[in-house]
Please model this.
Amino acid sequence: MRKLLAPAGVNLLLGVPGIVPYFLVWYVLANGPLAALGWTTQDPNENDGMLLWLVVLVPVLGIYGLVWGLVNVRLARRTPAPRAAYWTVCAAASLAPFLAIGLF
Model:
């Protein structure tokens, strides 16, 4: 587990600006498909349609995903930990700031 401290710390730091794309994904899902299924309630002020959100979401998520992926591929090559454990720890560490803010 000691081998994963540095990648977990880097992904925790990457998770702080990751709050924005994670929130955008949740907002689009909550007001689109999940609201259509009845699992969430749609924001009554959201009447601009989904195309506007996709125009905002795709570049933000693409840039964040590219940076996150490149950093983690490089770190994965240098970390002597099992790959499954590495990617699980990194994904959890990246989501931790979003979940911490969402819970509080």
Notes: The chain has a mean pLDDT of 90. The CA atoms of residues 35 and 41 lie 5 Å apart.
